[in-house]
TrEMBL record:
Residues 145-198 are annotated as: Domain III. Gene3D superfamilies: 5' to 3' exonuclease, C-terminal subdomain, DNA helicase RuvA subunit, C-terminal domain, Nucleic acid-binding proteins. It comes from Nocardioides daphniae. GO terms for cellular component: cytoplasm; Holliday junction helicase complex; Holliday junction resolvase complex. The keyword Cytoplasm applies. This is Holliday junction branch migration complex subunit RuvA. The gene is ruvA.
């Protein structure tokens, strides 16, 4: 229904951005990596997926159409809703997801908060023939989920106004203390607490 939004970014917080389109502020839920690319007061264009439920209407935003397509495809797997699909896209790039499914890499998928062993196997089984091959160079090493998560937290902090040096120091500290270095949301909250105390 709403394929994309383009307008001025009037607000960015931990989970969403507000984009003003024609005098209306639209709240768009985004991954930390997408939020990190947005700047208050600048124009942005986000590919969007409009999810309507009995009790809510939610607009999810993405950097490009490929990320949006993967988000929508992952939801076709049994037991995967929009929040879990967004968690997948927060931890994995579209190509990392394709590679994990092509390689039967259950471990990579279970790094996503909310996906267990059986859920990962079900996603692989149901999406294997539909998700396509990775578009990156053959043989290119995929970043680990923990590296991807660290980078997303770092970009999220920079997007929220901290310097790269401050953000890097905070992320290093929380990653070394984290029980799950792939949990982007927990890392981001811990880094913000650390920066708030500094």
């Amino acid at each position: 229904m709403i394929s994309y939004v383009r307008g001025t970014v009037t607000g960015v917080n931990l989970t969403s951005a507000v984009v003003e389109v024609g005098g209306v502020g639209l709240q768009v839920l985004c991954s930390p990596g997408t939020l990190a690319s947005l700047r208050h007061g600048q124009e942005a264009q986000l590919a969007t997926s409009f999810v309507v439920r009995e009790d809510s209407m939610t607009l999810f935003g993405f950097l490009d159409e490929d990320e949006k397509a993967c988000f929508e495809l992952v939801q076709t797997a049994t037991g995967v809703g929009p929040k879990l699909a967004q968690a997948v896209m927060a931890v994995m790039t579209p190509d990392t997801l394709r590679r994990a499914i092509a390689d039967d890499d259950v471990k990579a998928l279970t790094r996503v908060p909310g996906i267990g062993q059986k859920g990962a196997q079900r996603i692989i089984l149901e999406l294997r023939d539909r998700i396509g091959a990775p578009s990156g160079a053959a043989g290119a090493a995929a970043p680990s989920a923990s590296d991807a998560g660290r980078e997303q937290v770092l970009q999220g902090l920079i997007g929220l106004g901290w310097s790269a040096k401050e953000a890097d120091k905070a992320v290093d500290a929380v990653v070394s203390e984290a029980s799950d270095p792939t949990d982007v949301g927990a890392l981001l909250r811990a880094a913000l607490q650390k920066l708030g105390k500094a």
